[in-house]
């Protein structure tokens, strides 16, 4: 038997239907069928269903001769379904990639009558909002089932058909069908919960609920919204017929909440229909009020309930108008403040910047401090990378040099004890930039910084390049959007030294950043620690991360896509852990460009640790047994350890066209290559992650890119730059 039958009704959804169908059919789970019901749609929805059926036998189209509406269309799909479970997905919504294996696992493990899944509201302006799942279940129920009487708060989840997967035989046994008319979900979803002996909740976002700008019923005014009353009448009729006890107060509260929601939406109920709608609310309140009462909400919401109970429309309306007037006044005041505040703030900021600029220029007339070295990394994100390694070597080999770090205010706490620093943007910051003899950075200092006679600028870079950089990006305008190449060259002209890790990097940097600097091809200072690390140090790092000695640790570290802001490669940590087995532990690290989006999970029982906010990436390399990456320079650093590397490049073709690359990573990889997520899982299942072919590839890669990483690169930089020693 097919596990899941998807019933997809289609009416005027031609612009969204392909995305819906693709989201179902492209899931890494095949035990499904899709019954697409063309509800006599006047657009090309029916043709799209037929097209998909021709190329995928799992799609079964049904074309109706006349429009019957959403509820009856779902019933027609249900009658043709053969799956053990049925999932009603509307034609303008779409599934989250990779969700279906988790749904299937939960269905098989717990055999629920109803499985509720989480969702997000996907607004037309690309904003997403979460559901009420976290509020209703602060502690997820997990892989357990329950009856509604044991967890009546379940009623507070959105009462739609598409956020639940229902056992088909259960629907047949209970005779549950969708009624015609609007709000058809009400008289289906609530009775299904009341009748279910086993309800499950999957705390995983599985569906995107599209919030359309136009065309949605919820944005259509008219008297058809009065059909909500008949749907709720059916709910109470079934409660009486089934003699459901103990749930009436909670269901009644939901009914009043829903009525108030519909009435409060100005896009649904026209002003002339508000009074009669309220009158019907009052009538239903009196008709269905439980003898034992119900939990009236506190605050303003409770006041609305009491006014409905008393039938006081004029008071209700007057308070609503007063509230709207107050909100309008507040919005007007906020807009006024927004008009004034930015002007004031800009003026204040301009005055402050002018003052600091004058201070910096005055400091430029003072002598260069012959003992001061200023360090920075990743646009002042903290203490890391090649500058940190050089700083530590200088403290040991050139103690007469005073090192000062520049960091953002929010990164001060992450500095190691005893490191002297200044906060970016302050007077002290401008002073050290003006007075320093040495300025060491893995990116460029700001444009206002002047190259003083006697000062030495050291560009350490922060990785061997896979993607094209500098002037070479001019050939790839998609990836170089907004770049100021003339300004870039002015910054490059300040360099005295360019630190490179291998001959390949030297060649690429000289092409990408043409200027009159000296290249120090000495290896990467940040990799010294990796080259010299001992088994004892590795054990200490793993222990500090909460990793047991016998755990098999995989580090996943993808790079940033400048041409696709916010895009992430498809990666399902739970499925990866399933393949790794009980000893598996997964470390996940986002690119530093996303550091303000980080939400560290901390140690978790599920075996996943978000290490995006971990400052020393070298610790993570030491802890890991395997690295998974894509086009990141992490592969060159990790290769120093001579451990398995897997290149996961699901967008390789698109990436090299849009962003540009310096060499064919698939032809010269540091190990095994996977082009899609199932292939990545197979790399670990099959043992290809560290087989003979992977070892040969890694050896060739190390020979080409890691020969200089012998543990003394930082020392070579300090001796040349700070002590003036020639090799």
Low-confidence stretches: 592-605
Shape field: globular
CA gyration radius, whole angstroms:
32 Å
Strand content: 15-25%
Total strand segments: 22
Please work out how many helical segments DSSP would assign: 25
Name the quaternary structure.
single chain
The main sheet comes to:
9 strands, mixed
Mean pLDDT: 90
Q: Residue share in helices?
A: 40-55%
**Distance between the ends:** 74 Å
Produce the secondary structure layout:
Layout: E1 4-10, H1 17-25, E2 32-38, H2 45-55, E3 59-63, H3 70-80, E4 85-88, E5 94-95, H4 100-110, E6 114-123, E7 128-130, H5 133-136, E8 164-167, H6 168-174, H7 186-195, E9 199-211, H8 227-242, H9 248-264, H10 271-288, H11 299-310, H12 313-364, E10 369-376, H13 385-397, E11 402-407, E12 421-423, H14 427-435, E13 436-441, E14 456-459, H15 485-492, E15 497-500, H16 503-512, E16 518-521, H17 528-532, H18 535-544, E17 552-556, H19 573-580, E18 584-588, E19 608-610, H20 617-623, E20 626-629, H21 634-638, E21 645-648, H22 652-658, E22 672-674, H23 677-686, H24 692-705, H25 713-721
Parallel strand pairs: 1-2, 1-4, 2-3, 6-9, 10-11, 10-13, 11-12, 13-14, 14-15, 15-16, 17-18, 17-20, 18-19, 20-21, 21-22
Antiparallel strand pairs: 4-8, 5-9, 6-7, 6-8
Helix pairs in contact: 7-8, 9-10, 12-14, 13-25, 18-20
Description:
- There is one protein chain.
- The longest helix is centred in the middle third of the chain and has 52 residues.
- Helices cover 40% and strands 16% of the residues.
- The protein is α/β, with parallel strands linked by helices.
- It starts with a strand and ends in a 6-residue tail after the last helix.
- It contains 25 helices and 22 strands.
- Helix 7 runs parallel beside helix 8.
- The strands form three sheets. Strands 1, 2, 3, 4, 5, 6, 7, 8 and 9 form a nine-stranded mixed β-sheet that branches. Strands 12-11-10-13-14-15-16 form a seven-stranded parallel β-sheet, with helices on both faces.
């Amino acid at each position: 038997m097919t596990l899941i039958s998807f019933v997809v009704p289609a009416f005027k959804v031609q612009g969204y239907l392909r995305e819906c169908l693709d989201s179902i059919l492209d899931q890494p789970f095949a035990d499904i069928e899709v019954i697409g019901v063309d509800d006599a749609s006047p657009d090309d929805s029916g043709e799209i269903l037929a097209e998909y059926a021709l190329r995928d036998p799992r799609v079964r189209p049904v074309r109706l001769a006349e429009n019957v509406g959403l509820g009856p269309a779902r019933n027609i799909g249900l009658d043709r379904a053969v799956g053990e479970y049925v999932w009603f997905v509307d034609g303008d919504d779409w599934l989250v990639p990779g969700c279906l294996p988790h749904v299937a696992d939960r269905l098989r493990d717990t055999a629920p009558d109803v499985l509720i899944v989480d969702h997000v509201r996907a607004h037309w302006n690309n904003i997403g909002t979460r559901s009420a799942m976290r509020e209703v279940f602060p502690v997820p129920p997990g892989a357990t089932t329950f009856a509604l009487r044991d967890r009546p708060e379940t009623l507070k989840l959105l009462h739609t058909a598409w956020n639940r997967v229902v056992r088909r035989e259960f629907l047949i046994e209970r005779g549950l069908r969708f009624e015609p008319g609007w709000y058809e979900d009400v008289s289906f979803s609530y009775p299904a919960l009341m009748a279910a002996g086993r309800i499950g909740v999957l705390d995983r976002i599985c569906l995107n609920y599209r919030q359309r700008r136009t065309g949605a019923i919820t944005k259509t005014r008219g008297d058809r919204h009065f059909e909500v009353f008949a749907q709720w009448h059916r709910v109470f009729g079934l409660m009486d017929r089934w003699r459901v006890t103990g749930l009436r107060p909670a269901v009644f509260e939901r009914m009043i909440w829903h009525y108030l929601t519909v009435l409060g939406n100005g896009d649904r109920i026209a002003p002339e229909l508000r009074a009669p709608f309220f009158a019907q609310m009052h009538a239903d309140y009196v008709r269905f009020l439980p003898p034992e009462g119900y939990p009236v909400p506190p605050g303003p919401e409770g006041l609305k309930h009491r006014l409905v109970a008393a039938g006081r429309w004029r008071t209700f309306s007057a308070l609503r108008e007063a509230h709207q007037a107050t909100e309008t006044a507040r919005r007007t005041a906020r807009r006024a403040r927004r008009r004034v505040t930015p002007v004031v703030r800009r003026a204040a900021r301009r005055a402050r910047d002018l003052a600091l600029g004058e201070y910096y220029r005055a400091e430029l007339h003072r002598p260069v401090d012959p003992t001061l070295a200023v360090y920075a990394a990743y646009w002042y994100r903290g203490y890391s990378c090649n500058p940190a390694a050089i700083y530590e070597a200088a403290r040991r080999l050139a103690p007469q040099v005073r090192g000062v770090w520049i960091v953002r205010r929010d990164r001060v706490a992450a500095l190691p004890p005893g490191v002297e620093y200044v906060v970016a943007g302050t007077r002290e910051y401008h002073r050290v930039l003006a007075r320093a003899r040495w300025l060491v950075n893995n990116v460029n200092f700001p444009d206002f910084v002047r190259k003083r006679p006697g000062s030495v600028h050291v560009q350490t870079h922060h990785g061997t390049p896979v993607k094209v950089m500098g002037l070479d990006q001019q050939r790839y305008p998609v990836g170089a959007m907004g770049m100021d190449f003339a300004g870039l060259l002015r910054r490059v002209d300040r360099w005295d030294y360019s630190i490179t890790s291998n001959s390949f990097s030297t060649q690429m940097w000289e092409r990408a950043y043409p200027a009159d600097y000296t290249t120090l091809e000495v290896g990467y200072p940040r990799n010294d620690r990796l080259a010299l690390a001992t088994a004892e140090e590795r054990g200490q790092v793993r222990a500090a991360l909460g990793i047991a000695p016998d755990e098999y640790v995989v580090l996943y570290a993808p790079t940033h896509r400048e041409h696709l802001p916010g895009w992430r490669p498809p990666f399902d940590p739970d499925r990866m852990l399933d393949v790794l087995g009980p000893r598996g532990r997964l470390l996940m690290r986002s690119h530093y460009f996303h550091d303000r989006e980080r939400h560290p999970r901390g140690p978790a029982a599920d075996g996943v640790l978000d290490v995006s906010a971990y400052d020393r990436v070298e610790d993570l390399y030491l802890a890991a047994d395997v690295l998974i990456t894509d086009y990141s320079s992490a592969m060159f650093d990790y290769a120093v350890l001579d451990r398995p590397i897997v290149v996961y490049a699901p967008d390789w073709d698109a990436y090299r066209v849009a962003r540009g690359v310096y060499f064919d990573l698939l032809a010269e990889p540091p190990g095994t290559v996977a082009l899609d997520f199932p292939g990545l899982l197979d790399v670990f299942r099959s043992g290809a992650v560290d087989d003979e072919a992977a070892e040969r590839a890694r050896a060739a890669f190390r020979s080409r890119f890691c020969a200089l990483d012998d543990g003394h690169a930082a020392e070579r930089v300090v001796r040349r730059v700070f002590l003036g020693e020639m090799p």
